[in-house]
Specification:
Number of helices: 2
Strand order of the largest sheet: 1-2-3-4
Mean pLDDT: 84
Number of strands: 21
CATH superfamily of one domain: YVTN repeat-like/Quinoprotein amine dehydrogenase
């Protein structure tokens, strides 16, 4: 009996030792698994995640903006001078405001002014005739007592010719002399009338006229091109552009052009227009007076004297416009 009890006790102790060994081994395995779990990257962030898909680059169309181009600043057109001037010599000249004419309504007679004191004083003279002159498109002086005007008259504003031989004390209508004169009527700026009759102008709008003889004359157009004719306006040369041109006059067989805004001249530049297309005008001088008001600058050559009228200023040059 004692041996059997001892044998059973030994077997029980052996089973307890095996159980303890098994429990220890299980604990070691469990600790290993826990340690492994703590040392691995979370699922989806490392090697066990799905392979990353690299997006295919989508080509981006780039548009290169064109370089800005300079837009030319439109050049303002020249306008018909509202000041009219006709010089005789260094002390005598006639001048006028162009005025207006309204068809169907008779207006006041226009006024000419005469100076015999180099512009120090001016005498107003009424251009009053039976034909009722209303405005003036051209003034032409011969001397201190004789001058004529061409312009619209009466209620129809038809072009008329009036002249004085008494220093402006009296004017008379001379319709027969109109046909033999040069003029550009304000109502038809695209037509030049010469002693040969009405002729097409070399441009759509003539703003100023300079006369040398019955056959020779020059015109300034609104686009600031200058044209010459030597056959009574039947034909014209090809013209030449004059920067800033506002008025023109004839001087001893040649022409002079007044320009505003010209380079290196803060006043009014005076130039001889080029005779060949594309050639530059020849600068003569710079008068120290100008005007920002369109139509307020005019130029006239007399015997040995060049006159400039700009706003309220009258200047005289006795060396062709070189100095004033």
């Amino acid at each position: 009996m004692p041996d059997a009890r001892r044998k059973r006790g030994s077997q029980a102790r052996a089973r307890r030792r095996l159980a303890l060994i098994g429990i220890g081994a299980f604990a070691l395995v469990d600790l290993g698994l826990v340690a492994l779990a703590f040392t691995r990257e979370p699922s989806g962030l490392a090697a066990d995640a799905q392979p990353a898909v690299t997006p295919t680059p989508v080509p981006v169309e780039t548009t290169v903006a064109p370089e800005p181009t300079e837009t030319p600043t439109p050049v303002a057109e020249a306008v018909t001078p509202t000041r009219l001037l006709s010089a005789v010599d260094a002390v005598t000249a006639w001048r006028a405001e162009s005025g207006t004419c309204t068809p169907g309504r008779a207006g006041p007679s226009p006024t000419l002014e005469l100076t015999t004191s180099a512009g120090a004083t001016w005498s107003p003279l009424s251009v009053s005739t039976s034909g009722d002159p209303a405005a003036i498109d051209r003034v032409q002086a011969m001397d201190a007592v004789s001058a004529f005007v061409v312009g619209p008259a009466g209620t129809t504003c038809a072009t008329a010719f009036s002249q004085t031989f008494s220093g402006g004390a009296e004017f008379r209508d001379y319709p027969e002399r109109l046909a033999a004169s040069w003029f550009v009527a304000r109502s038809t700026p695209g037509t030049v009338h010469s002693p040969a009759g009405d002729r097409p102008a070399p441009c759509a709008a003539v703003v100023d006229l300079a006369v040398i003889s019955d056959t020779e004359a020059g015109v300034l157009c609104s686009d600031r091109r200058f044209f010459r004719t030597t056959d009574g306006a039947s034909t014209w040369d090809s013209g030449t552009a004059v920067e800033g041109a506002v008025a023109v006059t004839a001087d001893v067989g040649t022409y002079l052009v007044a320009s505003v805004g010209a380079a290196d001249c803060e006043g009014t530049a005076v130039s001889v227009p080029a005779s060949a297309p594309g050639a530059d005008s020849t600068r003569v001088g710079c008068a120290p007076a100008s005007s920002a008001t369109p139509g307020s600058v005019t130029l006239s050559a007399g015997t040995d004297a060049l006159w400039l009228w700009a706003d309220d200023t009258v200047l005289i040059s006795t060396n062709g416009g070189v100095t004033w």
